[in-house]
Structure formats: structure tokens, C-alpha cells
Amino acid sequence: MxxxxxxxxxxxxxxxxxxVPQAKITENGSLYLDRAFVLKNVSGRTVNAKKYPxxxxxxxxxxLEAQEVKLKVNDQExxxxxxEENVQIARFFSDYLGEQIRMETDFRAGFPDDDQNSGPTIVxxxxxxxxxxxxxxxxxxxxxxxxxxNIELGNCPEPFWEDRLFAxxxxxxxxxxxxxxxxxxxxxxxxxVPTRNPLSxxxxxxxxxxxxxxxxxxxxxxxxEAQFDHFYRLCVNTIIPPSEAxxxxxxxxxxxxxH
Length: 259
Prior knowledge:
The chain is of the alpha+beta class. The protein has 2 domains: 3-30 and 113-257, M1 Pyruvate Kinase, Domain 3 (Beta Barrel); 37-105, no CATH class. It is 16% helix and 29% strand. The protein contains 4 helices and 15 strands. Strands 2-1-10-9 form a 4-stranded mixed β-sheet. It has a 4-stranded antiparallel β-sheet with strand order 13-12-11-15, with no helix packed on it. It has a 3-stranded antiparallel β-sheet with strand order 5-6-7, with helices on one face. A hairpin with a 2-residue loop joins strand 11 (173-177) and strand 12 (180-189). The mean pLDDT is 96.
């Protein structure tokens, strides 16, 4: 049976993620601390890697038990208390980006990429292994950093097995991760970020074109093609119902049909 192989949360939106052995479900159905912090400019717009490619040059290393983050870019390095030093973290990014930045927090809902489907994104290890064949030279970790999924499934028999986790448009596909009920909604539409080197922000103009061509050609027969208005989609968007708030998912939890 497929099971949870990796759980990754991204505490500061658009920065590096950190692997965790378990994660609590928030009131909004997200994973606790996933995108719980967001950077914004003076206009109130989110500062993310879509519009600020050089943000990808910033390395973030977290110690969640100590509630600390170490930020490093070029020859600058600084340690911060993640929960208490938002102003200082914002100043670090203001200096780096050359404009006034502030940091906001939301531990109840976070700042998901998809407000309508705020649950964790899901992919399988077999899918990343297939993508390695599409893009020789990219490691599994490089692909993980590009596509930034929250949950990676192990023991899947075929690439894109996660495409089984959504149905027709407008139809919910319910399943369990351990004791947590999850609703699969659709394949995740991707932004420009996966086309870039995740450590430098430098883009590859051919990546999207090659990905789309291969995704169209290899779309599994079990994937509902009606969900693909375009083929620049990977991972599954989900919703977790409010009834599941406070429960936890953990490594090695099995995926099964909903009870």
C-alpha cells in the first residue's frame, strides 16, 4: 500500500522547506507551520519567488524544536527566533531585496498558494524518479525543491500514481492518510518556479515546453483528462475537512480509501 515517505513544510512562504516526522492539521486544513509566515512589500503584495526569482538564492535552515531559522545569502548569514523576531527577519529581506519588507503570520490557516484548495499537495517518489528520466542531471532533491510538495508517497507501483487521487471536475475523491480524511481535488497547476534552478533562481526556457510535451504524451489512462485544461500540472491539490483539525499525519501512515 502507498504510504507517507516524506512530509515537508515550508514555514516562510517561497523559502526552503524542512522535513518533519509528523504534522498537525490546522483549522484551515493545512499542515501546521506550512506557509505560516509570508513576506509582503509596502503595497501589501506577497513577496514570492514567482515575482522575485533571486529570493531562491536565500537558504533557510530551520530548527523547529528550538523555533529558530538560519538565513544565508551570498556572504550574509543570520540566526533568528522564528516566532519572536519577525521584524528582524523582515529587515534581513529588506536589506537583501532593496525595498521595504514586512512579515506577517497566520498559524490557523497559513498563506497557501491555492486559497480554494488549502490542504497539502501530494506527489509520489515514483513520479520524481520518472521526471529524472525526462530531465537527466536533475537529482530527486532538485526536483523536490522545484515542485515543493508537502507529502511524498512511497511504495507506489507506477509514476503519477497520485493522479488517482482526483476525479471529475467538481467531484470529490475522498481518501485517508492514516486517521486523517483528505479530499483530492485536481492536479496542481504550476507557476514559473519549477523551471528555475532552485538554488539560484536561474531559469531554463526549455523546461516548461519539454515538461508539457512529456506530460501530455505519458498521461496515465487512470488520470481524468477532463482535469487537464493544460498539461503543466503536477502533484495533487487537496482539502482537509474541518472535522480533521487537530489530528496528525506521520511518516509511514498508509493511504487508504475513506471509511
